[in-house]
Known about the structure:
One of its GO terms (biological process) is protein processing. It is built from nine helices and two strands; from the N terminus they run αββαααααααα. The protein is mainly alpha-helical. The chain has a single domain, classed as Collagenase (Catalytic Domain), CATH 3.40.390. Strand 1 and strand 2 (29-32) form a beta hairpin. The chain is globular and about 50 Å long. The structure holds zinc ion. Residues 61, 65, 120, 123 line the site of zinc ion.
Amino acid sequence: MIVSPWVGDGMAAARLVVPNGFPDAFSNSVIMTAAFLGAPRFDGDAAPELNYATFGSVFAHEFVHVAETHEFGADGSVQELWSAADIKAEEAAGQCVVAQANAWEPLPGVKMKGERQYGENVADYGGLRLAFEALEKRLGTDALYRVDASGTSPAQRFFYKYAQYRCTAQTDEDLRKTVESDSHAPTVFRVNAPLSNLPGFARAFSCQPGAKMARPPEQQCRVW
Ligand SMILES: [Zn+2]
């Protein structure tokens, strides 16, 4: 396994015990560590919507990273895969993601860095959408939104699990640090921003127009 950046001996081994996924642009592949394949992140006996919300959304997040890295061919050689029009279209659609992050103020006076966190945010938005669409394909639209004996629908359980998976207790000081130096957004944004852009979320919970977690269609970002 190629590990880049290489930050020290044992890095490759460490990554096997850390539950995470990584994009590997040089081999056009996604690496999911063995440690990820355990409950509660992945459970072969669990209902599909739960695994799609965790393993599925992280895998799709890494997949978007690979797709966004368009400078390598299938054999790893340097090659531009996108046309000039593709690049322009991606940039234009991406402005929406940048603007939503910049407009969010997690604490008074603390501003997000939409440009700097774009790569991770666009992977979060796209990863959620792709995982949810894959689940819809697996279950069928009717079954996805149908409330069953448990009182919830598979779609609702997918979103609960997605939010629970990212649930974080964070001090203001740590949140400030995340905004300043992390390439990822604070977890509250990583949940609420992608969900509020996804029509399936509003449908699953019957959000009324104007609901805070359901952006109107013309304000929804869609890159992937
Ligand atoms: Zn990422």
